[in-house]
Design a protein that fits this description.
alpha/beta; TIM Barrel; 2 domains; three-stranded antiparallel beta sheet; 14 helices; 11 strands; binds ligand TUI
């Protein structure tokens, strides 16, 4: 069985963590991934702490396995969320779209393992010095808010720069991707897009169908809040392109984007909603339970690794 230091660090069976996707990664999904032996993560997004507390309850009602909460650093509730995860003794926190450095002492004192998501070598180095437990190195193939570097060059550079375990993310949706990540020196993978199509994921069925239908060229990067966001192409992204062509300000872009992720996830608006998804959407072909996704990825990875032995001669 494939086992890495990440499994020991987190007390999980398989080196697979689920992306902490805002609106998408609810307690139901996180519980299913954790119960299946991966690390399920609640995506706090911009939700108020009380709502996140309910999602933590949902996980604890369904499984005793470790799980995590992703804190999105552009949320207006970051301080309250840090207090909440400490009070609730959440086993793992991942962070996105910002630097969680100033909260590390509080999180570590509460026994929370901290795994920031980074998209650059400089931030990886800084956070290792501050004492984080592991890092997610997220390439620009992933969905949602993205950095500038692709997974293939980013992961080995971060692996070379730090001693703590590195988890690869961006463009990974199957066992081949897991093996590729391990070859780059990662100790595991984070998958987001693949888990949108988990049976337990509570997004609107239209969202899941849009991911299933996506082909290789069906994602695009749009600008928002001075940041870049990868989504599936639709009428909303054409509106973004028109605004950009007119030289619109970030404020105008922001106004267009406001509430659109909710519209996609809750109302199933696939035309004007923000369908955040990574380039691996084209690799996602069916809806199945989280446990079946994880078993398939692991079986595929083991087959690939076994087949490698035949490549080496002499
Ligand atoms: O956070 C993500 N992905 C996300 S968050 C999100 S929610 C959203 N909703 C509406 C509009 C826009 C976003 C959707 N997708 N990924 C983790 C990630 N973090 N990728 C890159 C970074 C990052 C970027 C800069 C982390 C730190 C950072 O540095 C800031 C600093 O202070 O140095």
């Amino acid at each position: 069985m494939l086992h890495t230091p990440l499994c020991d660090l987190l007390g999980i069976t398989y080196p697979i963590i689920q992306g902490g996707m805002a609106w998408v990664a609810t307690g139901e999904l996180a519980a299913a991934v954790s119960a299946a032996g991966g690390l399920g993560i609640i995506g706090a997004g911009s939700a108020p702490p009380e709502a996140v507390r309910q999602e933590i309850r949902k996980v604890r009602e369904r499984t005793d396995r470790p799980f995590g909460v992703n804190i999105y650093y552009m949320s207006p509730y970051v301080e309250e969320l840090v207090d909440l995860v400490c009070a609730e003794r959440v086993p793992v926190v991942t962070s996105g779209a910002g630097n969680p450095g100033k909260h590390l002492p509080q999180l570590k004192d509460a026994g929370v393992k901290v795994i920031p998501v980074v998209a650059s070598v400089a931030l990886a180095r800084r956070l290792e010095r501050l004492g984080v437990d592991a890092l997610v190195a997220e390439g620009m193939e992933c969905g949602g808010h993205i950095g500038e570097i692709a997974t293939m060059p980013l992961v080995p550079q971060i692996v070379d720069a730090v001693k703590i375990p590195v988890i690869a993310a961006g463009g990974i949706a199957d066992g081949r991707g897991l093996v590729a990540a391990l070859a780059l020196g990662a100790a595991g993978v984070q998958m987001g897009t693949r888990f949108i199509c988990a049976t337990e994921c509570t997004v609107h069925p239209n969202y899941k169908q849009a991911v299933l239908k996506a082909g290789d060229r069906d994602t695009v990067v749009t600008g928002m809040t001075g940041h870049y966001v990868r989504v599936l192409k639709n009428k909303l992204t054409r509106q973004f392109e028109e605004l950009a062509a007119r030289g619109a300000t970030w404020e105008e872009m922001d106004r267009l984007g406001t509430g659109k992720l909710r519209a996609a996830v809750v109302e199933g608006d696939v035309e004007y909603g923000s369908l955040m998804a990574g380039q691996s959407a084209a690799l996602v072909r069916e809806i199945k339970p989280a446990v079946a996704i994880i078993e398939e990825v692991m079986a595929e990875a083991e087959t690939v690794i076994s087949s490698f032995a035949r490549l080496v001669r002499g």
